[in-house]
Amino acid sequence: MTVKVHIIYCGGCGYRPKFTKLKTLLEDEFPGELEITGEGTPSSTGWFEVEVNKKLVHSKKNGDGFVDSDSKFKAVVTAIEQAMGK
C-alpha cells in the first residue's frame, strides 16, 4: 500500500528547499513506498505542514517549527510506519 505524504509549505517564504530536502530524506527512508506531493501557498503564511494519508502529523503553524531535527523527522517516520501498519 502506497502511503500519501502531502507537505504544504509557505510559497512566499522561500520554503521550497526545505520541502525538497524533507522529500528526499523520506524517499531515501522509504524507497518506492511513498507518494509525496508538495503545495506552496500563494502568499506568505509561514506554514510547513506535513500530512500522512490526510492526517496532520507535523505543523509549523501549531508550533512544531520545521522538520529540522532527528526527533521531528522520527515523528514523521513513525506516522508513516503506522500508516503502513508496521
From TrEMBL:
SUPFAM superfamilies: Thioredoxin-like (SSF52833). The keyword Nucleus does not apply. Keywords: Redox-active center. One of its GO terms (cellular component) is cytosol. One of its GO terms (molecular function) is antioxidant activity. InterPro entries: Selenoprotein_Rdx-typ, SelW_related, Thioredoxin-like_sf. It comes from the Eukaryota. It holds the Pfam family Rdx. The keyword Cytoplasm does not apply. This is Selenoprotein W-like.
